[in-house]
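Figure S7 source data.
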Amino acid sequence: MAAKKPFIRITDTTLRDAHQSLWATRMRTDDILKIAETIDNAGFYSLECWGGATFDVCMRFLRENPWQRLREIKKVCKKTPLQMLFRGQNILGYKHYPDDIVERFTALACENGMDIFRVFDALNDPRNLETAIKCVKKYGGHAQGTICYTTSPVHTVQAFVKLAKEQEAMGIDSLAIKDMAGILTPGAARELVAALKKAMPEMPIQVHSHMTSGMAAAMYLAAADAGAGCFDCAISTLSSFSSQPPTESVKVMLESEGFETGLDTAALTKINGYFKDLKAKREPTSAKKVEAVDAGVLVHAIPGGMISNLRSQLAQQDALDRLDDVLAELPKARADLGYPPLVTPTSQIVGVQSVLNVLSGKRFSMVTDETKRYAAGYYGRTPAPIEPKLRKKLIGKLKPITCRPADLLKPGLVAAAAELPPNTIKAEEDILSYALFPEVALGYFKWRKEGGPIPADAEEAKTKVEVEEKKGNSSLQLPTSTSTPSGTPVLAPLNGTFYRSDAPGKPEFAADGATVKEGQPVCTVEAMKLFNPIKAPKAGKITFVAAHGKMVQKGETVAVIG
Ligand code: CO
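Tokens for the predicted cobalt (II) ion complex:
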């Protein structure tokens, strides 16, 4: 008689990744609470309910306190552990935070009911995971280490095993294989899981994927065979497309192979019925046009979410017709940049850099500050080294570093608290919210104090108006290179917001009337959320034409050098 196959557990991602992937993260706390008890009783291993986007959108669009959401879910879900996605030293944001902020955030998250922390780093640099893993352990959480899965000549099974062993040494309780783009094939999963199991037989392995390319459910089955013990799924209404595989289907698939899942079918049916009704209210209209399977991912490995970002970035630059060029450029730019996995924030850096490489007509002639900092080591070690000549060009005058990036940061908690206007905060958690999302948190605190409309309620109408306006104005957005004062014009390289000084976190650029050197960065345009410094085309006295903080169009004269 064949030995009974082991128990396989399922993590429910409906409350985090699934609605982030399909509903623009617009699920509200009330939506969750109405069904939370049933979810808690369905037999899941854990409930993923917190992450960067959920935290941000809570405050920005829903005017909710994400900490309060966590507490309220915890009040109802007493049986099933709560889980969050934690970007290592980036916590929930896009930059490295000092260790004291990582520590207080973790402490408060544990205190408010978070149980399992999936800690990952976009570059798979273990130094960026260290503090977070240590803090999770210190405050009693379950520290799950992560391999961000990607393919490249340097991302071999051996390299992944080495990365896992490094995290094992840090004391992780389990390990996740995070296949954010849905590119992990059943064959590769079987090989990777088997190698990990061989190297660390006791380590529980969980697999996270997306149905983007249509392979994830089959891949889960292969990974289960090789010894993975837990999989991320979403309830069917919020599954598939760019979300996780459906819980109900994966359950039946696993059980047909002799695995037990412990999931209660009646509860799953009830949960799904609930979200089916909610879908009409929460799913954005744009989601209805998404294809069920994005076969392109199998070819170019670029996740759909990233493509829709590229599309909107190109639309912002009136260059939607260049999408194919950007998709062709992206893998090349990624290779040149040392094959970073494409996940926040590297997906943004590589994506925007690829857009610039195409739009500027000369690769890496325009480099964002973030690309510069990435190449200089401020995000961590690049998976493969960047070719030295290119690296030098990218870095410019920035000082390259080889240490753990957070070692350069001063403690930030007291400074963040001191920055807050008086009478803004109600509890310590507000300081953390502010430290992670300064502008967003201030907007939320102001709303909390003064009241006002909830942005998400007015959103759909607003989006419609914007689309109409965009259509009507497209002919007006042609480059307008005028040069009213005499001299050499300094042109905006992109559509975006112009800053000549005081850009958030930016040093002073050239003062009006100053004498500048050729090639000196004199001002910047913020486009696609990243800063694009503009260099002086020649030496001379600079006179600014464009106003600080105003929208400029590509080709518009922002300054003149005489
Ligand atoms: Co995901």
